[in-house]
Amino acid sequence: NKSIIFMKRPKDYPVAGEHFVFQHTELAPTLEDGDILTRNLYLSLDPYLRGRMDGVEGAYVPCFYLGNPFNGYGMGEVIQSKNPKFPVGSIVFGIITWEHFSHIPPAFNNLIILPAAVRDSKVPLSWYMGALGMSGLAAYGSLKLVANLQPGETIFVSAAMGAVGHLVGQMAKRQGLRVVGSAGSDEKVRILLEELKFDAAFNYKSGKPIVDSLREACPEGLDIYYDNVGGEHLEAALEVLKRHGRVTACGMIDDYNRLVPYHIKNLVLIFQKRIKIEGFLCLDFEKEIWPVFTEDVTKWLLDGDIVCKEDIVVGLKNAPDAFTANLKGRNFGKGVVKIADL
Ligand code: NDP
């Protein structure tokens, strides 16, 4: 077997070959009762995995331990089973190890079986890593249950060409909002405007202060900031938000690779403008909305109402490099690693 093993805790950006390493590993020769063996197909590249490398015990997700395989959301096919709930041939989705083959005992088995129809459906399997996976669930669930969108409002989405951001923008647009996005290159901004039909977008790396770009993009003020970034983006949004504006706090990627967190200087505006900030974790509503989320988003994608942008890297050995490159902004849409064909 080949696996990505977690070797060393990074201080800033993780480096392939140093912090996580592609290497040969042994598979147990037989399965015990309750075990399954999966042949892994896809991995989802998610920024929260960076936090798990820090080794903080008791955080909202368990940390990684040195010497163990990396793990995260992914998809595999059950090829051996001593667990009647997971027959051979099932396509499973959930937390899997970053390996060609995963030997999964019952205690670590939180997988769900995808419907048999996925084998010959019009829906590409990779969509279950993005728009139909945790990124889509975060976007759909937070807009439905947290953000309280009202038609005619203006929403600003940061990391807008990322997995969550590009879906949030399109979903908000479907609901009649004016959508503004920021991203780290002119080409990302072009796609936001031309392909994804954002109303306004700017390159936050252009050299202009983010607050100035945001003000220009929101001449009538800002109702909602959908925060994927934190840092200077959050600071700028607090300036531009209207009185009683809202922030839906999805993530703070600006913080994940910094030795010293960015110091937000205008938190006083939260009470002065009566701004409401609400964070969420998609795990909070996963069970509650999974069926309706899957049904709605599958329909929107197949009808062409929204587009699922993907950035697919082929080969397990390329996963560490792709993970770090995406943290630095390489990906357009959902970062996925394809390990094998079904
Ligand atoms: P992606 O990996 O798809 O995209 C992240 C993008 O963030 C990068 O491509 C980069 O694009 C941008 N970025 C990186 N560093 C910075 C920075 N310092 N300032 C501004 N932009 C930056 O991420 P996701 O869409 O999967 O995740 C987005 C956020 O949502 C993350 O914070 C993540 O942790 C969070 N999240 C939260 C969930 C929840 O349940 N609350 C669920 C899923 C994700 P660019 O070129 O624009 O810089």
From TrEMBL:
The record's Gene3D superfamilies line, in alphabetical order, gives: Medium-chain alcohol dehydrogenases, catalytic domain, NAD(P)-binding Rossmann-like Domain
InterPro entries, sorted:
ADH-like_C, ADH_N_2, ER, GroES-like_sf, MDR_fam, NAD(P)-bd_dom_sf
A Pfam family found in this protein is: ADH_N_2
Enoyl reductase (ER) domain sequence ranges: 17-337
Provide the alphabetized UniProt keywords: Oxidoreductase
Q: Which PANTHER family match?
A: PROSTAGLANDIN REDUCTASE, PROSTAGLANDIN REDUCTASE 1
Protein name listed in UniProt: Enoyl reductase (ER) domain-containing protein
Recite the lineage of the species.
Eukaryota, Fungi, Fungi incertae sedis, Mucoromycota, Mortierellomycotina
